[in-house]
Specification:
Helices cover 37% and strands 30% of the residues. By secondary structure, it is of the alpha/beta class. The protein has one domain: Endonuclease Chain A (Endonuclease, Chain A). Strand 7 and strand 8 form a beta hairpin. The longest helix is centred in the C-terminal third of the chain and has 17 residues.
Length: 155
């Protein structure tokens, strides 16, 4: 099993092309990637809503999640799903808001995923999900940390 996980998240993994003409297949591929993520996750996505939790819930091997965003859409449903996520999955999750974000990515201990669209919108438009090496994740984690430390906690 570990060999399969390593293969899917290996550096030579081809980018996942998210094709709206084959939206369900694209969504399933991205869901499969989230299922393999483990450890502390740093998630940066400019636009989030309650659907973001559908993907984060698949990362059941995560030990913590820090979600940094600029815009929370449909705050009432987002708050509801944040509370439900916390109760059900027992994964420490914190959400903060800041300005000046653009890229969407997930940093995990052995690498980084770069998303061409917001996670909540996977399958709606053409985009890519690209796996980057640990060195990118390490550098981006520093930038994430600076933004995180200056961000406002979402309550």
């Amino acid at each position: 099993m570990q060999k399969g996980e390593d293969e899917v998240l290996a550096i030579d993994t081809q980018p996942v092309f998210v094709d709206p003409e084959n939206a369900l297949s694209s969504i399933r591929k991205v869901e499969g990637i989230f299922e393999l993520l483990k450890g502390d996750l740093l998630v940066c996505d400019t636009y989030v809503d309650h659907k973001t939790f559908d993907y984060l819930a698949l990362a059941h091997k995560a030990t913590s999640i820090k979600l940094l965003t600029e815009n929370v859409q449909n705050e009432t449903r987002f708050r509801r799903d944040l509370a439900a996520f916390t109760k059900q999955y027992k994964i420490p999750i914190e959400v903060r808001q800041t300005t000046g974000l653009h890229d969407r990515y997930v940093i995990y201990p052995s690498g980084m995923l770069l998303f061409g669209s917001s996670i909540k919108d996977i399958g709606k438009k053409q985009s890519l999900v690209v796996r980057l090496p640990t060195s990118f994740g390490t550098e981006m984690a520093k930038a994430f940390g600076r933004k995180w430390n200056a961000a406002t906690k979402f309550v």
